[in-house]
Automatic annotation (TrEMBL):
This is Activator of Hsp90 ATPase AHSA1-like N-terminal domain-containing protein. Residues 188-222 form a coiled coil. Residues 56-66, 262-304, 327-343 have a biased composition (Basic and acidic residues). PANTHER family: PEPTIDYLPROLYL ISOMERASE. Gene3D superfamilies: Activator of Hsp90 ATPase Aha1, N-terminal domain, Tetratricopeptide repeat domain. InterPro entries: Aha1, AHSA1-like_N, FKBP4/5/8-like, TPR-like_helical_dom_sf. Keywords: Coiled coil.
Length: 550
C-alpha cells in the first residue's frame, strides 16, 4: 500500500485511473474509468495473481478478522457521513461493510471462533440498520424495507428494524404495505410499552388504512353505479352518515349512546309519523276542495232552477239528489253470456274464481307452462350438473328474481358464528406465556335482504346486510399470571354486501364495559384483529356456498 501510494506499481493501470485515500488511509478509486480487470490486495499487501481468481469466492479478500475490522471502520465512516447529512455517501460506506461481513454469516463458531462470529453478526446488523436509516432519508423506501427485513431474519424482535421497516412501509400507499407497517409498529409498542412514537405511528397507520379502504369502497360503489343495488347502497350510505352525525351530537350533549339498529327504528317511527301527518293534511285539503266544488255545483244548480222558476235547494237536498242520480250496480251494462261460446264462458268463470293466470294454468298448450312437478333427487342433481339457472321460462332470456333473504340470513348466521381463533402460545406484555381464545359468541343482529337475479341464464347472487356480532376473548396464563380473564365486545359490519369483497370488509370493534386493562389492551386489539380475519374467512365460505345456490 505504501509503495502504491508513492507511485510504484507492479501492474499497469489505465492513465485515467486515479487513486486517492479515504480518512482511514485506505486506498480508494475515484469515479474515473474503471480498470478492465479488478486488482485485489492480499492479506500481506501483495497484488493478487491471476491464479487467485480461480479460488472459491469465500477464500477471496481479507481473512475473517480483517473483514470484521474493516467493516467496523466502514460503519464508523458511514456514521460520520450520515451525521454530516450526506446519506448517499453513508449508504455507500455501509454497503462496503455489508459486503465484507455477508460471507461471515454463513460460517459457524467452529470456523471463526465465538467472539469473532459475535462481532461479525453485530457489525452486520448495525450496518443493515444504518443503511435502512440512510435509505429512509433518501426516500428509498423499498431499499429501507429490504435492509430492515434482513435484520429481522437474524433477530425477529429487533425494535429498530421493526420501527424502520414500518416507517418505510407507511410511505407506500398500498393496503399490503400499510398492513405491514401496522403490524411492525404494533410489535414495537408491544416490545417497548414506553415507546410513545411507535404508538402514535400505529394510530396514524390505522387511520390511513381506514381511509384507504373507504376510498376503495367508494371506487367499487362508483364502478357499480347503475347496478342492481345502487339505490340501496346510496340509501345505506345516507343513513350511515346521518347516524354518525347523531352519535356526534349525542356525545357532545352528554346523552346516552344509541345503536344503529335503535336509531333506524326511531327514524322509521319518525318517518311513519311524518307520512301519517302528510296523509291527514292531504285528505283535509281534498275534503276542503270537495266541499268547495259541491258549493260551486250547488250554486250552478240553484241558478238553473231560479231561471226555471223552481225553489232553491239546500246543500243536504242537493247531496241526496246527487246520490239518487248515481248509477246503481244493477244498471251497469254486462256482456250477455248468451253471446259467449262454451270456451269463453268457461274462461270467464275461471277468471272470476281464480284470476286469469291461475284459471288458465292447466290449459296452456305448451310444455313451457309452469305446472307443478315432483322433483326427484336424481332429477335435481341432473339439473344442477346442467347449470340451468331459474325456471324454464328464463331459458329464453327473460328476467327472473328470487328472494333469498331467509336463506341468506340462516347461512350467514351459521357461518359467522363459526369465526374463532386459538393461540396456544401467545405472549402477554409481561413476557409470560398464555393460551388465548377469541370467538364470535352470538350474531346479535343481522338485517338486510338477499335475492338471486337471473338474466339470460346468468344468475347474480346479491345480498345487502348489516350485522352486529358479540365476541369474547379468554386469556389463560399458563404460569398462573392473573389467572383466567375474559373480555367481551361487539363487532359491527355496516357493509356486509356482495359489492364488497371479504378482504375489504369493514369491521368495527367495540369493547363492552371498560375492556382489557391498559397494559393488556394493545395485545387484546391484536387478538381482535385476528378474529376479524376469521370473520372475513367465514364470509368467503358463505359466498362460495351462496354462489352454488340456484
Amino acid at each position: 500500500n505504501t509503495l502504491l501510494k508513492a507511485g510504484g506499481s507492479s501492474c499497469s493501470c489505465p492513465p485515467a485511473q486515479l487513486m486517492a485515500t479515504d480518512s482511514d488511509g485506505d486506498v480508494i478509486m475515484t469515479d474515473a474509468d474503471q480498470p478492465a480487470k479488478a486488482v485485489d490486495a492480499g492479506a500481506e499487501g501483495e497484488v493478487a495473481s491471476a491464479d487467485s481468481a480461480k479460488a472459491p469466492a469465500e477464500d477471496r479478500g481479507p481473512p475473517p478478522e480483517e473483514r470484521v475490522a474493516l467493516a467496523e471502520a466502514a460503519k464508523e465512516a458511514g456514521n460520520t457521513l450520515l451525521k454530516a447529512g450526506d446519506s448517499a455517501a453513508a449508504a455507500t460506506k455501509y454497503k462496503e461493510g455489508i459486503e465484507l461481513t455477508e460471507l461471515l454469516l454463513e460460517k459457524g463458531p467452529s470456523e471463526l471462533g465465538e467472539d469473532l462470529q459475535t462481532r461479525g453478526v453485530a457489525v452486520h446488523v448495525a450496518l443493515r440498520l444504518n443503511s435502512a436509516q440512510a435509505c429512509i432519508k433518501q426516500s428509498a423506501w423499498m431499499d429501507a424495507i429490504d435492509h430492515a427485513s434482513k435484520v429481522l431474519l437474524i433477530d425477529k424482535d429487533n425494535a429498530k428494524a421493526l420501527y424502520r421497516r414500518g416507517s418505510a412501509a407507511a410511505q407506500l400507499d398500498t393496503e399490503t404495505r400499510l398492513e405491514q407497517a401496522r403490524a411492525d409498529f404494533a410489535r414495537v409498542a408491544q416490545l417497548d410499552t414506553s415507546n410513545r412514537e411507535a404508538r402514535e405511528q400505529l394510530q396514524r397507520v390505522k387511520e390511513r388504512l381506514k381511509d384507504l379502504k373507504q376510498r376503495e369502497k367508494e371506487r367499487l360503489s362508483a364502478a357499480m353505479k347503475g347496478g342492481l343495488y345502487q339505490e340501496q347502497h346510496d340509501k345505506l350510505g345516507k343513513q350511515q352518515a346521518a347516524y354518525e352525525e347523531e352519535v356526534a351530537r349525542r356525545k357532545e350533549a352528554g346523552e346516552d349512546e344509541m345503536s344503529f339498529e335503535d336509531w333506524l327504528k326511531k327514524e322509521k317511527e319518525r318517518e311513519d309519523e311524518r307520512k301519517k301527518q302528510q296523509k291527514e293534511e292531504m285528505e283535509k285539503r281534498q275534503e276542503e276542495a270537495r266541499k268547495e266544488e259541491e258549493k260551486r255545483l250547488l250554486s250552478e244548480e240553484n241558478s238553473r232552477r231560479a231561471i226555471e222558476g223552481l225553489s232553491e235547494l239546500s246543500l243536504e237536498e242537493w247531496q241526496v239528489q246527487q246520490r239518487a242520480a248515481a248509477p246503481r250496480k244493477e244498471d251497469v251494462v254486462k256482456t250477455d253470456e248468451a253471446d259467449l261460446d262454451e270456451e269463453e264462458r268457461k274462461l270467464l268463470q275461471e277468471t272470476k274464481s281464480k284470476g286469469y293466470y291461475h284459471g288458465r294454468l292447466g290449459k296452456v298448450l305448451s310444455n313451457a307452462a309452469p305446472t307443478p312437478q315432483q322433483v326427484s333427487a336424481d332429477a335435481a342433481a341432473s339439473a344442477q350438473n346442467g347449470c340451468r339457472a331459474g325456471s324454464e321460462w328464463n331459458q329464453a332470456g327473460t328476467w327472473e328474481e328470487k328472494d333469498t333473504t331467509a336463506w341468506v340470513k340462516e347461512r350467514l348466521t351459521a357461518c359467522l358464528q363459526q369465526a374463532k381463533i386459538n393461540l396456544p402460545e401467545a405472549l402477554l406484555p409481561s413476557g409470560a406465556p398464555a393460551v388465548v381464545t377469541a370467538e364470535v359468541s352470538k350474531v346479535k343482529s343481522l338485517t338486510g335482504e338477499g335475492q338471486i337475479v337471473t338474466v339470460r341464464k346468468q344468475p347474480k347472487h346479491g345480498y345487502n346486510f348489516e350485522a352486529d356480532l358479540s365476541f369474547s376473548i379468554t386469556v389463560n396464563g399458563t404460569n398462573g399470571d392473573s389467572g383466567e380473564q375474559t373480555f367481551n365486545g361487539v363487532l359491527h359490519l355496516p357493509d356486509l354486501m356482495d359489492a364488497v369483497q371479504p378482504q375489504d370488509l369493514k369491521i368495527e370493534g367495540k369493547w363492552k364495559g371498560s375492556g382489557p386493562a391498559e397494559h393488556l389492551r394493545l395485545s387484546a386489539e391484536g387478538w381482535v384483529d385476528k378474529l376479524k380475519e376469521s370473520v372475513r374467512s367465514q364470509v368467503v365460505a358463505f359466498r362460495k356456498e351462496y354462489s352454488e345456490k340456484r
